[in-house]
Amino acid sequence: MGSVTSAEVDVPNLFSRSSRGRARVVWSLAVVLAIGAAVGLVSASTSSAASPSTPAIAAASTTSIPPGPTDDSFYTPPSPLPTGNPGDIIRWRPATAGPTSFQGTVNAWNVMYLSTDANGKPDAVTGTVLTPKNGTPASEPIIGFAPGTQGMAFQCAPSKYLARDGFYEQPALDDFINNGYAVAITDYEGYQQTPKATYITGKSEGPALIDAVRAAQNLSQASLSATAKVIFRGYSQGGGAAMWAGQLQPTYAPQLNLVGVAGGGVPADLVSVSLALNNAKGFGFLMAALIGLDNAYNLGLNNDLNSAGQAAVKELTTNDCLYELITNFAGKNINTYFSTNPLGSAAFSTAYSTNKLGSTPPKVPVYDYGGTNDQFVAYPQQLTLAHTYCSAGVNLTWKDYPSDHIGLIYNGNADALAWIKGVLAGQTPASNCSSLPTS
After folding, report:
1. Residue 296 · residue 117 · CB < 8 Å
2. Contacts of 159 (CB under 8 A, 6+ apart)
3. Between 19 and 329, whose confidence is greater?
4. How many Cβ atoms are within 10 Å of 229's Cβ, its own excluded?
5. What is the pTM of this model?
């Protein structure tokens, strides 16, 4: 299939509310490209997340745990949370995932598992575990899959999109299952009936992704190995989450057999990404990021909002998924919704800088890629992260494409998959740090 640009996509038709409600979404390349406006924007933290003691990976079995609720109460965490370790499963249930043809190839389960929030405290996160029906679980590698932006409302949770065959990164899942890999997909923190999504707070996303893998290993029904090779993979918001998981893994989950990280369209320098979105097409992602940071760290965002901002926050957190995020806020700016600019506050500034990627580079090979025409996640800061990792001695493979943000969701899949297959086969990637572009 040839390269396709985002200009060929009718975004409103693909992402209308009616299309989100369909039981079956026709999977065409256009679907993949259009929804890819998932920018995965700003993330930060006001404090370094404490690393809880890390137990043996396969500590908690679900053999004696009956299936959880079949309705949406599945997503509401118990209060108080049960005691346990990151990756321990709180509840599980059989799941539906993807189009009918995909359902015929996979075993699927929803899981709720213990993880760690951006402040180092226990939390509960949901996700989905997939294994090939014709596979051999004991020898299957596990892809920790970090989704791109879906939206902040409860109905936008990746597992809910999967259940109604509306997950725009379905082609990547097809690739992994077809190659015999298990996949652990996190919903990230905060997707429940009263949502409080921490979009895109890296110090929450990283543990959520790591612990999705540990939950998959703890799920008795999946029969996966506690020593399976693991790759973290994501694009845009998911690319940032994958890199954060790679950075946190050595101290947060040292027993995990991580062998590589593959991420694209990475929002690494949150200040650079955010400033470029004000008065731009991607302003909705900036708005969502501010809400997500406030949900994670209680930064007092509500005190800065005007009446229009209060209405926008309600809409974003209760009704809007990706289509509305893209279309309803295009070209808007901070002054439209805020009486005081939160970007200038000390609390948000600290949060942004604390969550800048690069300070603790991954210990495993990294595949990093970006589009030179990215209109949502500034290309120069993506390239800067690659240079930072290379300077720290990371075995990094960088590739850039003459692509915008949307197009690269699809156009980057094949090369990322080839790199992943090589690493899982035991090959040592040939780093190209010595030939990185300078701008």
Report:
1. yes
2. 95, 110, 126, 127, 128, 185, 187, 191
3. 329
4. 20
5. 0.88
